């Protein structure tokens, strides 16, 4: 039995009659906070390792905690006769092959930009119900992550200038500089009684509204400034 098969068996035993009462009563919805928490802890472990403050043992442990969430959700679905971990893995394998035709088919690419463009086109074909390049960005993302995602999607869709055209001479030159600049903004906001997270959420909402306007105008063939 592989280690992954053993993990699946342990999870099934924990949730079976006579197993763990807490595990048995969990649902997809009740586990959402743990998924979010474990993802953040994994990110922290990766960053700590890269900074020299962490190690592979910690990273391995946090990867395991994220994997536990996947196995937990898959077992809930298995017990209800909907799908199991094999189905999850099978779907993921199919998606990876489908979205990498330059590896698994005969599509030629010339660098990362072509790979990203192909990925976006394939994803759009898979999800035709998404009428906008901005659809599918989780509303619950932290404000900064959501703003970055909006701008990334917008750049890839040509709705805003790329980094080279949009760069400001006064912009921070490194992540360290940027970090301190952001901390200073948050500090000054707090001193003025302002909520930095809420302010950025509001700005991101307005940005999304404007970008969708640009996108709609483009689709209608009307000129609009990005």
Automatic annotation (TrEMBL):
A GO biological-process term: UTP catabolic process
Pfam families: MazG
Source superkingdom: Bacteria
Keyword field: Hydrolase
Domain NTP pyrophosphohydrolase MazG-like: 26-104
Record-linked CDD domains: NTP-PPase_MazG_Nterm
One GO MF term attached to the UniProt entry: nucleoside triphosphate diphosphatase activity
InterPro entries: MazG-like_dom, NTP-PPase_MazG-like_N, NTP_PyrPHydrolase_MazG
NCBIfam families documented for this protein: mazG
This protein's name: XTP/dITP diphosphohydrolase
Originating organism: Agrococcus carbonis
């Amino acid at each position: 039995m592989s280690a992954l098969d053993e993990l699946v068996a342990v999870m099934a035993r924990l949730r079976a009659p006579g197993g763990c009462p807490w595990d048995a009563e969990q649902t997809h919805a009740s586990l959402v906070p743990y998924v979010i928490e474990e993802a953040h802890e994994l990110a922290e472990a990766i960053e700590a390792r890269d900074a020299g403050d962490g190690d592979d043992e910690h990273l391995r442990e946090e990867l395991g905690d994220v994997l536990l969430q996947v196995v937990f959700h898959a077992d809930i679905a298995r017990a209800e006769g909907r799908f199991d971990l094999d189905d999850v893995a099978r779907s993921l394998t199919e998606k990876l092959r489908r979205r990498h035709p330059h590896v698994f088919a005969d599509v030629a690419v010339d660098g990362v930009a072509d790979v990203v463009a192909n990925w976006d086109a394939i994803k759009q074909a898979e999800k035709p119900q998404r009428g906008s390049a901005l659809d599918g960005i989780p509303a619950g993302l932290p404000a900064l992550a959501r703003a970055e995602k909006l701008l990334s999607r917008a750049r890839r869709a040509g709705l805003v200038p790329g980094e080279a055209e949009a760069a400001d001479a006064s912009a921070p030159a490194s992540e360290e500089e940027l970090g301190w600049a952001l901390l200073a903004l948050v500090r000054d906001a707090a001193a003025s009684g302002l909520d930095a997270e809420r302010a950025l959420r509001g700005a991101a909402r307005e940005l999304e509204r404007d970008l969708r306007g640009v996108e709609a105008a483009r689709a209608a063939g009307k000129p609009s400034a990005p």
